[in-house]
Amino acid sequence: MISQNMKKLIEKSAGISALFTEAKKMKEQYGAENVYDFGIGNPNVKAPESINKTAIEILQQEDTIILHGYTDTAGYAEVRKKIANHLNRRFDTNFDEENIIMTVGAAGGLNVIFKVLLNPGEEVLTFAPFFSEYTAYAMNAGAVLRAVPPNLETFLPDLTALEQSITKKTKIVLINSPNNPTGVVYDESIIAEIGCILEEKQKEYGTDIYLIADEPYRELVYDGAEVPYVPDYYKNTIVAYSFSKSLSLPGDRIGYLVLPSQLEDYDEIKQGAEVATRVLGFVNAPALQQKVVAECCDELTDVAFYDGNRELLYTALQSYGYQCIKPQGAFYLFVKALEEDDEAFCQKAKQYRLLLTPAIGFGCPGYVRIAYCVSRETIEKSLPAFEALAKSYQ
Ligand code: PLP
Which of 184, 244, 267, 276 has the most CB atoms less than 10 A away? Predict the structure, then answer.
């Protein structure tokens, strides 16, 4: 008999699994090119050329016994040093290898840091809508995810509600900007205000509250939007970064955590992150990919391509009458469903071969997410389907 927790997770995943199965069936039936799959955030842009080139060079040049061996649980020291230097150049910080833990993507990083910080019953507070996996990550650490309700006008954080939602049990406040699923970017005033609120609440309750910035989309921004470097605004900040989107490497499972030395209990957190990496079964981040990203971390995916997709889809959907804010980052549009039940709306969209994700799992029912990290052709071909879907509700 499987565990009660796993039963709950399977039930929760049922919708997503059904979506996958149905998408596969539809592609077999109609041909993949005739199904408009906006379901998941799997980048359609190729990884930069330097990725394969570097990987091949490393494979040819290095001792393969060492290369395929275990690395330090934190990752290769020289890799962490290169990542620290890269961050120092970009953000004028003062990190060294002791501030970096290589991780199995942002997902691995979040699970590691949750394991380090959370006691059973403690809470992770985030803003709805949020990346749906957060709920399970908190559960993995025996903790609970709570969400501050969404601001449906702007999808920016409601800071009054944040202040009211923090309790003695709040150990982590988790933010994600540029955001999945809305594409909003938090500006400096928002980050600074979150920092002030957390400082005050730490004092009020005599607790440590860690701000975790989940940043897989940091570089994917449009119209000159800036993403403030969160550790500059609040002492107890930890960054979870990933190369899944910025270098189109989601299957290679590589990212890192930034643990600034200024953190309360830094030494224990650092040690804990190494132990958590091991005991969660990651052992270390993929060895070859550590070396590859250390060489290629200054590279960037084709942001202009995503921007072109964004403009095309956003403008078209507006003209068909869909309601949606214009995203400033990531590669998602967050659109109001044309009926109250977002799952029913997604079912109806399938009749037009449109695969969308209902937002109920993101803590924001009544909306759907459209992942526009697809080919330009898919977007172009999908537009008549979006138009027909909108007309069917008129
Ligand atoms: N956090 C957010 C907000 C995401 O959107 C994703 C993936 O889509 C992740 C974390 C996990 O990313 P990774 O592939 O780096 O584990």
Answer: 184
Residue count of the chain:
394
Looking from the CA of residue 176, the nearest atom of ligand 1 is 3
Q: For residue 157, report the distance from its CA to the centre of ligand 1, in Å.
A: 20
Ligand 1 atom closest to the Cα of residue 214 is: 1
Q: Is the pLDDT of residue 233 over 80?
A: yes
CA–CA distance, 155 with 160 (Å, rounded to integer): 14
Given a contact cutoff of 8 angstroms between Cβ atoms, the answer to whether 358 and 346 are in contact is yes
Answer whether 0.70 is exceeded by the pTM. Answer: yes
Q: Following DSSP, what letter does each residue of 261-312 receive, concatenated?
A: TTSTTHHHHHHHHHHHHHHTT--SS-HHHHHHHHHHTT----HHHHHHHHHH
Q: Pairing relation of β-strands 332-336 and 367-371?
A: antiparallel
Ligand 1 centroid–CA 217 distance in Å is 9
Q: How confident is the model at residue 345 (pLDDT cuts 50, 70, 90)?
A: very high
Q: Is the CB of 244 under 6 A from ligand 1?
A: yes
Ramachandran bin of 261, using left for φ above 0, alpha for ψ from -120 to 50, beta for the remaining angles: alpha
Interval 278-294 mean pLDDT:
98
From the CB of residue 135, how many other CB atoms can be counted at a distance below 10 Å?
Answer: 21
The whole-angstrom separation of Cα 19 and Cα 357 is 8
Of 358, 297, 112, 300, nearest to 214 by C-alpha is 112
Q: How far apart are CA 255 and CA 241, in angstroms?
A: 5
